[in-house]
Design goal:
InterPro entries: L-rhamnose_isomerase, Xyl_isomerase-like_sf. The chain has about 425 residues and is of the alpha/beta class. The protein has helices at about 5-30, 35-45, 75-90, 105-115, 150-170, 190-205, 235-245, 260-270, 295-315, 335-350, 355-365, 370-380, 385-395, 400-405, 410-415, and strands at about 50, 95-100, 120-125, 175, 180, 215, 225-230, 245-250, 275-280, 320-325. The longest helix has 28 residues, at about 5-30. The protein binds alpha-D-psicofuranose and manganese (II) ion (2 copies).
């Protein structure tokens, strides 16, 4: 199923007048504070976040999985789903594939389908955390860090194959997330595991095309529960530096121990020009993969405040690759992704409203109270009319969830695909 511009316009018509008065009121208020409202709306309209192919089906836990019905069961259907989200939000103009789950059969047909849905291919993700059918070696005891050279070689080759697949689709980056680690003290030699990982990553890096980037993701625990080889941003940063200029750290919001100051990590990485990629989600306990902004919206705002500062003041850092990396055990995955995009845009818009000049002055004067006031002034602004205006200007829906429901998208998908289709992936 596809949603046409006309269908969206029709749904928008009913709420357009209300939006106009809300937007005008906010625009006037912000204008009187010296905010360039048009510039903010343009930035919001330009901001695009990739959707991972594995987020389109209902997630699950090791205790079970509850289907949401009408889920995509092949790459074509996954692209169609992202196309639906993008037509409603105008914010999801890219899809991120996971190999081998998403290997295209017909590359040209897949590229055409993506283009018809106005999508590009974001980072390709390798998978050395699962054993593949007929694979010679097993990743039970690690992949790039494995003590067995045969296993390391297989994992390196897999990453090189993933890059080749990505090249055929027009991707420009490879994301490496390793499950490697140990479950019990004494199982691994930490130094050897680190050294093998560095050597393997360097080998992958050597066959990276000139205009590609490599993103190295970190995570403190799970699936291993005693140690993880790439456990934190410092480890990822060291490995990226060892590889070279095209290698970067990737921050996944869920991959931190509780109360870690993620905004400070973001600031440091950007200052060093090494923040390459970003995965959005939220968490209460660990890598919960909850909807971004659903648990700690103020933290998300503080992180965006550093991202906005870095994008303006750190030309040494490339424009980061944005992606949602969440799961939705009980929600309609497409509705959850729409909520995620809204939360991301909201935090971004609020961060754009921070009076950076006044903040600098207050910091120099050590006026702690004013510093806090300035951040909270921006955070407390209801910026949703700005998001709606950005969507309206780009042909999206003023209220994407309402539009999704009134256009009966899920019902059509169930009719098209059947109730019990199953997506490949996590
Ligand atoms: C596992 O924690 C994970 O969520 C990583 O964040 C990866 O990005 C993703 O799975 C897919 O491999
Ligand atoms: Mn991730
Ligand atoms: Mn994760």
């Amino acid at each position: 199923m596809q949603i046409s511009k006309e269908q969206i316009q029709l749904v928008n018509k009913k709420v357009e007048a209300g939006h106009e008065s809300q937007f005008n009121f906010l625009a006037q208020t912000l204008d009187s504070k010296g905010v360039d409202v048009n510039a903010v709306v343009k930035k919001l309209a330009d901001f695009q976040v990739a959707i991972p192919s594995w987020a389109l089906g209902a997630g699950g836990t090791r205790f079970g999985r509850f289907s949401y019905f009408g889920e995509p069961s092949n790459l074509e259907q996954k692209i169609n789903d992202v196309g639906i989200i993008h037509s409603l939000t105008q914010t999801a103009g890219a899809i991120s594939l996971h190999i081998p789950w998403d290997v295209p059969e017909d590359y040209n047909a897949i590229k055409e389908l993506a283009a018809a849905n106005h999508l590009v291919f974001d980072a390709v993700n390798s998978n050395t955390f699962q054993d593949q059918k007929d694979a010679k070696e097993s990743y039970k005891y690690g992949s790039l860090s494995n003590v067995n050279k045969g296993v390391r070689d297989q994992a390196v080759q897999h990453n090189i194959d993933v890059v080749e697949i990505g090249e055929k689709l027009g991707s420009k980056s490879l994301t490496v997330w390793l499950a490697d680690g140990s479950n019990f003290p004494g199982q691994n030699n930490f130094q050897t595991a680190f050294q093998y990982t560095e050597d393997s990553l360097k080998e992958i890096y050597t066959s990276l095309p000139e205009d590609w980037k490599m993103f190295i993701e970190y995570k403190p625990y799970e699936p291993n529960f005693y140690s993880t080889v790439i456990q934190d941003w410092g480890t990822s940063f060291m490995l990226a530096n060892a590889c070279g200029d095209k290698a970067y750290t990737l921050v996944d919001l869920g991959h931190h121990l509780p109360n870690t100051n993620i905004e400070q990590i973001v600031a440091t990485l950007m200052m060093k020009g090494k923040l390459g990629g970003f995965h959005f989600n939220d968490s209460k306990y660990g890598d919960d993969d909850s909807t971004v902004g659903s648990v700690k919206p103020y933290s998300l705002f503080l992180i965006f405040n550093e991202l906005v500062y870095g994008m303006k003041n750190n030309p040494q850092n490339p424009y980061p690759a944005w992606m949602i990396d969440a799961s939705h055990n009980i929600k309609d995955p497409l509705e959850d992704l729409i909520q995620s995009l809204e939360a991301i845009q909201e935090a971004y818009a609020k961060a754009l409203l921070v009076d950076q000049k006044a903040l600098k002055e207050a910091q120099l004067a050590n006026d702690v109270v004013v510093c806090q006031e300035l951040l909270q002034e921006a955070y407390r602004t209801d910026v949703r009319p700005l998001l709606r205006e950005a969507r309206l200007k780009s042909g999206g829906a003023l209220h994407p969830i309402t539009a999704y429901r009134s256009l009966q998208v899920r019902e059509s998908l169930i009719e098209e695909r059947g109730k019990y289709a199953v997506a490949s992936g996590l």
